[in-house]
Amino acid sequence: MSKVNKLLHNWLLKSVSEKGLAWLEQKQAQIASGAAERVFFTAFSAVPRYLGKQDLQLTFQDLEAAQDVIPGWHPGHWSVDQAGRTLLLLALPHDDAEGYVRSLDQVFSSADMGELVALYQSLPLLPHPDLHRHRTAEGIRSNMSNVFQAIALRNPYPADYLDNAAWNQMVLKAVFVGSPLHLIWGLDRRANPELAKMLADYAHERWAAKRSVTPELWRPVGRFADSAIITDLEKVLANGDVHEQEAAALACAESPLPEAQELLSRYPDLQSSIQQGNLAWSSFSRDACGELR
């Protein structure tokens, strides 16, 4: 049993009935031994009926164990049916990569929203991760917010496997739909000049329409700010609310450009807070944006 399988099984052991778990184990064994595909598809749909839909009861140690196995895997918001469905996906024979992806394509094509959420959440745990890029990019274009969030938030797959074009579109869409950027795994690591320009352009569109932008928009921008973006940050520092000013100051602090540092020096209280560690993106995100369950 793989480490991922063992963790999921142990978590379900604490959260579902003996009868439900016995049913799941039987289906896992049948699927792993090469049972007809209809066994997998029928079981995948039936998981909530046997296990329920309640949340997994995970401890801090459980979440740490998840991070140890797959960095960025954060199943704190997973339900028992999502864990059960992931175990069924992991039971599918996968020596034949094309056959495995073909089976996944079939289940994706007929899945309802709840099943799609489970499927996209499980992507970083599945075999042949390189082959799921197209599927992930397709999911990012979904109009279903739960599906988009299953990919974009608390999921390490996009940061680890998407190219810059798909990654940038995902982050921009997260801003557009109001998803909290601090829940995007790898946001700082995958920041890039093209994304910084896209986000700055988006801010200009919003400002032209007399609309505000989330302060988190400036988080992936600071390191790649050019003179035009520094001018934008100057405007935010002069006219923004408290959170917007803090975000602009943090962006300036991360910029290597002398003009960004000179701009930040005009706001000694913010500069001092950053230097003393009292203002950072980690604490800023919790205070300014709250947490999304």
Summary of the model, kept short:
The protein has 293 residues and is mostly helical. It has helices at residues 3-15, 18-32, 37-51, 60-69, 80-91, 97-110, 113-122, 133-140, 145-152, 157-161, 164-177, 193-208, 227-239, 242-254, 258-265, 268-275, 281-289.
Feature tags:
293 residues, EboA family metabolite traffic protein, EboA_dom, single chain, EboA
Record the SSE blueprint.
Blueprint: H1 3-15, H2 18-32, H3 37-51, H4 60-69, H5 80-91, H6 97-110, H7 113-122, H8 133-140, H9 145-152, H10 157-161, H11 164-177, H12 193-208, H13 227-239, H14 242-254, H15 258-265, H16 268-275, H17 281-289
Helix pairs in contact: 1-4, 1-5, 2-3, 2-5, 3-5, 5-7, 7-9, 9-11, 11-12, 13-14
Number of domain modules: 2
Unreliable runs: none
- How would you sum up the major sheet? none
Structural class: mainly alpha
User: What's the number of extended β-strand segments?
Assistant: 0
Shape: elongated
Measured between the Cα atoms of the first and last residue, the distance is 30 Å
| Helical fraction | 55-70%
- From the alpha carbons, calculate the radius of gyration and give it in angstroms: 22 Å
Q: What is the overall number of helices?
A: 17
The average pLDDT score comes to 94
- N-to-C SSE series? HHHHHHHHHHHHHHHHH
Beta-strand fraction estimate: under 5%
Protein name: EboA family metabolite traffic protein
InterPro entries: EboA, EboA_dom
Organism: Nostoc edaphicum CCNP1411
